[in-house]
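Record 1 of the preview.
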Amino acid sequence: MTQQIIIVTAAVFGMLSVIFGAFGAHTLKKVLSAEQLKSFETGIKYQMYHAIVLLVLGFNFKMITPAIYWCFTIGILLFSFSIYGLVLSDSKGKKLRFLGPVTPIGGLLLATGWFLLLINFW
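->
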C-alpha cells in the first residue's frame, strides 16, 4: 500500500459521495420517503467523513497502517454501500434483506479503524 493508493482511494470515495449526494438530492428525493432519504444521506455522510480521513492520513503517511486503511476502505464499502442497496431496493419494493447484517459489520470496521488510529498515534 502506497501513499498514492491511499490518496486515490480517498479521492474516489469523496467523488462518489458527491455524485451520490447529488443523485439523492435531485433524483431520489422524488421517489424516496423521508426516512429512506435520511438513511441514504447517512451513508453519504459516513462515506465522505471517512474519505476525508483517508485523505488526511494519505498526506500524513506515517500515521496510517495497512490495517487502518483496510478497515476504513472495507468499512465504507460495507456500511455505506449496504445502506444504498437497502434504500434503493426498498424503494423498488424488493428490499435486499441480506444487506441488513452487512451494515453493522461495516460500522464495526469503521470504529476499528478509528481505534487502530488511536493506538497507532498513542
